[in-house]
Amino acid sequence: MKKLIAILMISTLFAQGPHKMSFQAYLTDGNNMPVAAGNYDMTFRIYDAVTDGNKIWEETQTVSIEGSMINLMLGNTVPLVPFRKAGFLEIQLQDDILSPRQEIGASMFSLRSQMAEIANTAPGYARLDTLSFYAKTSDIVANTDNQALRISGDTLYISNGNAVALDMYKNTFTDSDDQSLKISGDTLYISEGNAVALTPYKDSFTSDQASAIVANTGKTGITASQASEITANTAKTGITADQTTALNAISGTNTGDQDISGITTNATAIALNTAKTGITT
What we know:
It is a single chain. This protein is an alpha+beta fold. The protein is 15% helix and 30% strand. It is built from five helices and 16 strands. The chain has helices spanning 110-114, 207-215, 224-232, 241-249, 264-272, and strands spanning 5-12, 21-28, 38-47, 55-65, 69-74, 88-93, 96-97, 102-103, 125-128, 133-136, 150-152, 155-158, 162-165, 182-184, 187-190, 194-197. The strands form five sheets. Strands 3, 4, 6, 7 and 8 form a five-stranded antiparallel sheet that branches. A three-stranded antiparallel sheet has the order 1-2-5, with no helix packed on it. It is rod-shaped, with a radius of gyration of 48 Å.
């Protein structure tokens, strides 16, 4: 991998309004030869140390290089923020990281020196702690409770083109408004492996009892055997099982309520007695 070196850098004009910094550099490769002309993707990062350290700002731009010179404005895509101490600018050209990091001079902090240090005591200014910027109270419009808010990725967009990066404030959990629900047995399954047992919320009867109710085989106040007899219609109210058998075995016709068991022979005669002598209707 070739090594690129920034041998000239001029950082000026950290403007109060747009929070940008003018940047110029002359780039050479490891053989001290100019970088070929063309358009390159360049990434700029600011750290709080010359090596390792914490990254406090980053942006990527497509830069046109002619004669190995670059001239651009840092903060075009991601506004620069003021810092409390010196920063170190790391430059990446395509896949190659330039070495070493460039220390950013006092001009980088002009916004802080001119504004931030007196913001807590200067009349007419209000500090917006969560944004690390400052707003003049005369510029603050009253009755602005109703704002148009929109979240895209890690950024909260507010009315009039304002935006706040939320990556440092967001929680570790993901959005949970839209969940996938599924029931299997006695368990309700929710997205991302979560589940709720439904057993405590079921009625106290067993599955066998539920099946009996559906089949209508369990009759309230009677045994299962009685229920079966009722279903088969083999138990006749007011007569015994023997009497029921006797009635079924009679070869004659019995249209009354009298027991005529044992009169099989006489039953035929009675049936042939058309005059019905000696008996009532």
